[in-house]
Amino acid sequence: MSTKFDLLVWKYIVPMFRVEMFQWKIVQLLAVGYSLCYSLPRRLMRHYFFGKGTPIQVDGQKLINDNPHLLALIQEQTQCKPKGVLAVSQLELTDPKWKYSVGSFSLYFNRKPGGMELQLRSNYDYQQATMRLTQYLHQALASSVKTKGFSVSSPTFLLSNTALEGQPAWSEIKTAAPFALYLLV
Question: DSSP assignment of 9-58, as one string?
């Protein structure tokens, strides 16, 4: 499935849903089924239900390549800081394979000559208490007795200063991207 199709789903179909609708098992099944159309969410959900809770590694550089607008967020949020942690919300992801798999995550950064070292870290576990459109779905998935949460991380990767330079302001990108309003999960 394509990113364009996913953006259309979030723009025209998801706004019709209300939180209460996700109490219905059929809606929960449709939502999970739709996210499983993508290979990475399918892999992580399978590990959540049938794995032993062991950590999984993903390609952080690929996440940036698949969501290139994140370069502007990284540049704006890290500014001149030598190192730190950048919290990235699931709302900022536009590629469905990442949006439905890692969710919100932390990017640990450390400036080096010529660029910035980054490492993605996240925990895969359905949050039951967070208010969101799919809160009932998250509660149903988290209450399954066979689930095992696990950590998701990437090997450290380097973003060159060249990749970070010349990015438009993150605030401009957010207001210019109307689909961002529909990424509510």
Answer: IIIIIGGG--GGGGGSHHHHHHHHHHHTTSHHHHHHHHHHHHS-S--EE-
Q: Dig out the tokens for 184 from the structure.
A: 């509510």
Domain count, the chain: 1
Record the tokens describing residue 24, joined without a space. 């219905």
Q: Residues 6 or more apart from 116 whose CB is under 8 A from it? A: 74, 78, 109, 110, 158, 159, 161, 164
**CA separation, residue 57 to residues 43, 155, 156 (Å):** 11, 7, 11
Give residue for tokens 């609708």: 21
Q: What's the domain range around 129?
A: 3-182
Out of 27-36, 54-63, 119-128, 129-138, pick the least confident: 129-138
CATH number at residue 22: 3.30.450
Task: Return d(Cα 164, Cα 76) in angstroms, integer.
Answer: 10
What is the pLDDT at residue 129? 59
Q: How far apart are CA 36 and CA 66, in angstroms?
A: 18
Distances (CA, A) of 54 to 87, 144, 163, 169: 23, 18, 33, 38
d(CA 138, CA 176): 30
